[in-house]
Design a protein that fits this description.
The protein has 728 residues and is α/β, with parallel strands linked by helices. It is 37% helix and 16% strand. The structure holds tricarbonodiimidic diamide. The site of tricarbonodiimidic diamide has 12 residues, from helix 2 and helix 7.
Length: 728
């Protein structure tokens, strides 16, 4: 459970770092700084001095890659129009009286292209230190790496708290970056041989001494060899130049998690073997549940895609992040050339382009397997509202799969794919995850593009990710996140983020709130029991239970369906849609739509509801860590109970609404949330009948807008502790 700590000799004392929370940052190893005729030669000449760190940095990079550390490469430079280059940087030096050195400035044409200009030859990395796919590249306009870049967000997203820092130049960007990182809470250790500058004889010792002076004013400075010594035993890749005897490619062991597959692929597993194995499983599962898929790619197409992928990436040490990872897509998300039905065949359309999320995972090497079932129009939390059939929980054929992302959760829960692209408006990603023993993550709205997805309720819709583990959800989030200027609901890229705590409260303890006892009364007996166990488990892993104001969460949940806001569900449909298509709709959906029309909500009511939504959002903000009394997360049961299919069919609307008790507020209040498996309980405890079988229990972690990184880290710790230590 505790992260594996490594330690090596450094000044002013040994640098101790948690392997999975540490990144190697390589500063500005660009041609412009390291090669003749670049920007650096103009700055300081003495290329021999600055080039001294290339070979040691290469050794360091290989050791860190081998040990599986996060790798970050920074690159200094400017947009071609120089709009991000202040005059202080552009002309100060050239304006010096008597200047003969700075005859050309940033943006001017030199022999390696325009100096320090993005896209030019000189701006790019030297050949020895090129990034591999999946490594983070940060383009920075300043000397420090944190000004006007996404580096803090990228490091937080990966739960990084410790940095090993290298690169050029010692006196400039290396030192500035360590000072900036220190202010943001990172523990940094610079590596002496892996940094250099233009005037090392004069500056290097002083610069490094200043960093560790006074028992570590800004951080640590260590030597290369002691670090290599501690990393060496962790190396999982072949040493360069070493020959390996011919091996039989490993067989697929059934592990569909992203790191599990990655490891197997690196050892030579063929993606074709994975495709063959999962198609065998899919065919067998059709007999268990025939309602999972709306469109299944023919086996031969998937094999062809896997074959092409294997040929494209033959260097198994340099694979893209999702190489050969099979996935399904909720059938409200566009895939070019394949009908998007939204489980309503009359509305089906064949999209000319794919949704942004689909393109992004394909670009990282993921393998598309098919499109999966959902509650019609992504409306419902049950999985019983589709003309393509009713899916059931992977745990029990009589119990619902949950919805609306029913096929997404089942395809992951039944081990047919590694992940599914889904959506979540009122709980559609979280509830089915809970009913199938998987993770359902709903990031802060507007941080992943919604372009190419048929809306359910556009101003509240959100992409959701169905995965096996919290870590997989986090990996996908990092790939999918990004501002889409063509998505009107996209949030701007983050410019300000809270500091991190490398050894402080976030690393060891966290504060969490739960609903008050009366709010939990709605839960079934096993859900209450398992929830109490979860609270105890959270306390065991460092959670501090803290009282919260539950009222804004409860009221926001009610606002979703009991006010005027539900009318937005009609806003994405043509005005005469209901009259024309009523008979083609699923009867429960038709009944729901009729009820919305009958409500005749006025514009006055709609504005009152929007004002209430704003008020509750502000009140919920107060609950999270923005204020001193704030909690890091709220923890709720994902759903209050688990219905049978029969129970839902007998009372479809009421049974559905109960399920959203703890999810409805999520998008109304602009929260992020992740449902995580939290054990199982006997079916008999729920039904009261003497019967065999188990059902999954799930808790959801909720946090404030854009606090995804913090929330996922707490959820990940819980997920890992459940998997390694079992239940409380
Ligand atoms: N001028 C100088 O020595 N360095 C830089 O401008 N950038 C970095 O140090 N990378």
């Amino acid at each position: 459970m505790a992260p594996s700590l490594l330690s090596f000799d450094a000044k002013p004392y040994a640098f101790t770092f948690p392997l999975e929370h540490t990144a190697l940052v390589i500063i500005d190893m660009q041609r412009d700084f390291l090669l003749a005729k670049g920007f650096g030669e103009i700055q300081g000449g003495n290329l021999e001095a600055v080039q001294a760190s290339i070979a040691p940095t290469k050794k360091l990079l290989e050791a860190c890659r081998g040990a599986g550390l996060t790798i970050v490469h920074t690159r200094e430079g400017h947009k071609p129009d120089l709009s991000d280059c202040p005059s202080s940087k552009l002309v100060r030096q050239s304006a010096a009286p008597g200047n003969t050195q700075h005859k050309i400035v940033i943006g001017d044409k030199g022999e390696l292209g325009r100096l320090l200009t993005r896209g030019e030859y000189g701006h790019d990395f030297v050949d020895e230190l090129r990034p591999l796919p999946g490594e983070v590249v940060i383009d920075k306009p300043g000397k420090g790496s944190f000004w006007n870049t996404t580096i803090l967000h990228a490091l937080k997203a990966r739960a990084i708290t410790h940095l090993i820092v290298s690169g050029v130049t010692t006196e400039c960007c290396f030192a500035t970056t360590i000072r900036e990182a220190n202010d943001r809470g990172f523990e940094c250790c610079g590596i002496e041989e892996a940094t250099s500058g233009y005037n090392d004889a004069c500056f290097k010792k002083s610069t490094l001494d200043m960093i560790h002076w006074s028992q570590g004013l800004f951080g640590f400075i260590g030597g290369l060899q002691p670090l290599l010594d501690v990393l060496k035993p962790l190396c999982t890749t072949r040493t360069e130049g070493g020959s390996t005897p011919p091996q039989t490619p490993p067989a697929f062991d059934g592990d569909l998690t992203i790191p599990g597959l990655r490891q197997a692929y690196r050892k030579g597993l063929s993606p074709v073997s994975v495709v063959e194995a999962i198609y065998d499983k899919i065919e067998a599962y059709q007999k268990v549940d025939s309602a999972v898929w709306i469109h299944l790619e023919p086996r031969k197409n998937a094999i062809e895609a896997a074959t092409k992928l294997a040929a494209k990436f033959h260097d198994r040490a340099a694979l893209p992040a999702l190489f050969g990872v099979p996935f399904s897509v909720k059938d409200s998300i566009d895939v070019q050339g394949i009908p998007t039905t939204t489980a309503c065949p009359v509305l089906s359309h064949v999209p000319p382009v794919s949704a942004v999320v689909y393109d992004k995972v394909i670009a990282e090497g993921a393998l598309f397997i098919g499109k999966v079932n959902l509650d019609q129009f992504a409306t419902g939390l049950v999985g019983c509202r589709s003309p393509y059939g009713i899916t059931h929980s992977v745990y029990h054929k009589d119990y619902i799969s949950g919805g609306s992302s029913s096929g997404s959760a089942v395809s992951v829960g039944a081990n047919l794919v590694s992940f599914s692209l889904a959506t979540d408006t009122a709980g559609s990603g979280r509830v089915p995850a809970g009913f199938n023993g998987i993770v359902g993550y709903k990031p802060t709205r507007g941080t992943i593009s919604f372009r190419g997805v048929t809306p359910a309720c556009l101003s509240l819709d959100c992409i959701a990710l169905s995965t096996k583990t919290v870590s997989d959800a986090r990996t996908l989030w990092q790939i999918l996140e990004g501002h889409d200027e063509l998505d009107p609901y996209a949030k701007p890229a983050i410019s300000f983020e809270r500091h991190i705590n490398s050894i402080g409260p976030q690393a060891t303890t966290f504060k969490f709130g739960i609903p008050p006892p009366e709010a939990l009364d709605i839960c079934s007996r096993p859900v209450r029991r398992k929830f109490n166990e979860t609270v105890a488990k959270l306390q065991k892993i460092g959670g501090v239970l803290t009282p919260i104001n539950w009222s804004p969460f409860h009221k926001a949940g009610q606002l979703l369906y009991e006010g005027a806001i539900v009318t937005e569900r009609l806003a994405s449909l043509p005005d005469d849609f209901l009259e024309k298509n009523r008979s083609a709709l699923h009867p429960v959906i038709a009944q729901l739509m009729d009820a919305v029309v009958a409500r005749q909500s006025s514009a006055v009511q709609a504005y009152r509801d929007l004002q209430a939504k704003t008020l509750y959002t502000r009140q919920a903000d107060q609950v999270f860590a923005y204020s001193a009394e704030g909690v890091d997360v709220i923890v709720v049961p994902t759903a209050p109970t688990h219905w049978t299919i029969e129970e839902v069919l007998a009372d479809p609307i009421k049974k559905n609404s109960v399920l959203g008790e703890f999810t409805h507020c999520g998008n109304v209040l602009d929260l992020c949330g992740v449902a995580v498996p939290a054990g199982i309980y006997p079916v008999s405890e729920l039904s009261g009948k003497d019967e065999k079988g188990t059902l999954p229990f799930s808790v959801t972690f909720l946090s404030g807008s854009r606090l995804d990184a913090e929330m996922l880290e707490i959820a990940r710790r819980f997920d890992v502790s459940m998997k390694t230590e079992g239940e409380a």
